[in-house]
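User: Quick sanity check before I run a bigger batch. Here is a single chain. Can you write out its predicted 3D structure?
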Amino acid sequence: MDEDAGDRNPPPDRLEEALDLIKRTFEHAPFSTCVFDGNGRYVWHNAAFMEAFGDGPPPPEFDFLEDPIIRSAGYGPLLEEVRKGNPVRIPEIWYDVKRHDPRFEKSRPSCITGFIFPLKRADGTVFCYFVFHEDVTERERAREEALRAERLAAAGSLAAGIVHDFGNMLTGIVGLARLLSEEPGLGEAGRKRVETIREAGEEARDLVRRLKAVSREGGGGTAPVDLHETVRKVCALARHALPGSVRIEASLGAEGSVIAGDGTQLHRALLNLAINAGEAMPEGGRLGFATAEVEGDDGAGQLELRVSDTGEGMAPELRDRIFEPFFTTREGEGAGLGLATVREAARRHGGAIRVDSAPGEGTTFTLRFPLTG
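Assistant: Done. Predicted structure follows.
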């Protein structure tokens, strides 16, 4: 440490006295508290800090005045103000320590806001820095969820407005194609062309049905559905639809597997997840289905289904948008409705869906449904 830096720090006895006061004041505070010396090096943290960041204190070489996460978020000027001895508020940022330092294996990405307060001596030099964090991850996720719900509602209103007229037009097209195919003088070649028109019309009608699901209209009836049997059928179809390089496995460990719902909608939702997983593994890999009985927040039994792949994985900015209607990463391929309808299927069955993914680490969709009986 250079001579100037040494002058910025108090004598050891005064530092110990100050730290003792800090510890007694903030040890059990409900918000994360960390103290750095006048050079930006770690000195102390409280219990809430460990709950927020999970892996222990920053390493000795860490200089919080050069925090790479805060600077990469565009808030470098705030750190310069702190360096001058001015207190600053840290706006909400997503803080992912593990991404910048793999040693922090237990650290989890979190949205934080905070306040940095330099404590000065009488001569104006900084004695130490108090850094207070508040974990607002759940609040931010709730806000993002509300925004997604608004977008879904808007897309649903748009879909509902066109479904009726579009469905009528398709009914006419498909019906006329069937009548035309029965014309005696049509010939084999003409009959094949008409059949192609009819098949295209049927596919378009299927898209209309999916639009109805997104717009929260329509839907099949409710009946007991054995989800294990549905998974087995989806696996059988997926083995034909996906390349042989994709290994499909099912570990159906839940004792109870019957839920109340629409078997057709659930089958379509799980097949959507399987096809998406296959497309994420162009070089092959593993697609797994696993079930378990878990307890919900209300204490009731739930059936948990995990659909996982060993594919490319997703960056956070992509992962946060995959359930949006009409969002797709494959321009020109599909309508971008697949995962939106999967999410809607989970909602219609009183359940929920979560996605966990990172680039190069594959993707896991976790669905939960209330068990019957």
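The chain has three domains: 3-135, 141-214, 223-370.

User: Great, the batch can go ahead then.
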